[in-house]
Amino acid sequence: TQYLSLPTNENFRAFGQHIRINEKTYQIFFLNDNFHTIENNQSFWSKGNRSAELFMVTTKPVKTFTVKLLTKSHRNKISFSIEHKTRRMRLNANQSHTIQFKHIEGLQVGKERYIYYIKVGGSKSYCGYYDNPEKDRDRRIIGVKTLIDISY
Predict the structure, then answer these.
(1) How far apart are CA 152 and CA 147, in angstroms?
(2) pTM of the model as a whole
């Protein structure tokens, strides 16, 4: 319940990041450093073969989570957990997969805040620059790209 007391001066990109998908918004608070900066206010990559852990904070209880996962590495084993539910899958290079979660009870904080614990990661790392430095200038070591859409 003390998510607003997390040490925001350690990594300001980790806390209170606003995500906007269509007309819905929520905030995320990363709990470790296994993530790259949020892209287009919508999605993020995990770092390499590590798992990113985060809190999602919404203003209403979420009925459905629709999660789109993408990997660029070859034959990646991906795990996505939200609260007590986990899905595991194997994806090939440049393959995406969409999963849904329903009836996830988050932690209600006050009257207008709901917190959901999320963990996402893969077994492999990828760096486009090392595969093709002429075309791909991205030197990040990435794992799984995650985009989470919600419906109330």
Answers:
(1) 17
(2) 0.87
